[in-house]
């Protein structure tokens, strides 16, 4: 026992800890890049499914815009076939660029959630379930409101049947995103960028609030089982 608690063992323990911290600090950017890359891969793999999903949802809808051509798909397979045949395979990735930018939505959500939680913990020792639910909903509402114009453009690009910037036919390019935002504002005003926001907020804010509530309860339960101090307490 004495050899385990000797000065030499302490030196090795400290050296190992310092080495581990140094390695983690040096390679942490690579871990961050890995997580970002996973998000990019997820967007690239799922965008074709979202494109088809969006078009099937809007099939049969009546549009006031005469530039939009009605679609007629007989299911998922037929939708994939018609899109590739009539618009080319790259049309399945319409809206990819806005989707990549929307990866920042969860980052904004967690930033505001943690900030609001810290502010509340300065005034009380512990957060109630209602506190967690409310600040979770507020954080998601802010993130959704900030990024909603991009979601609007994303939906337009996924639907595909619209008039693009004649100077640049590349779907989803930054120039076309700015062009579509400008056209939307010019035609409907600034609020045209937020059409349907109420329904989106109701869906996302309540979902996020419930997610944070379950997350905090599970975290507190884990701390209790492990005999650690809860993150909700000072």
From TrEMBL:
It comes from Lipotes vexillifer. Belongs to the mitochondrial carrier (TC 2.A.29) family. Its main location: membrane. GO terms for molecular function: ADP transmembrane transporter activity; AMP transmembrane transporter activity; ATP transmembrane transporter activity; coenzyme A transmembrane transporter activity; FAD transmembrane transporter activity; FMN transmembrane transporter activity; NAD transmembrane transporter activity. The keyword Plastid does not apply. Signal peptide: none annotated. It comes from the Eukaryota. One of its GO terms (cellular component) is peroxisomal membrane. It is found in: Peroxisome membrane. Solcar repeats lie at residues 7-119, 127-221. This is Peroxisomal membrane protein PMP34 isoform X3. The chain crosses the membrane at residues 12-30, 127-150. The keyword DNA damage does not apply. Keywords: Membrane, Peroxisome, Repeat, Transmembrane, Transmembrane helix, Transport. It is a multi-pass membrane protein. InterPro entries: MCP_dom_sf, MCP_transmembrane, Mito/Peroxisomal_Carrier. The lineage of its organism: Eukaryota, Metazoa, Chordata, Craniata, Vertebrata.
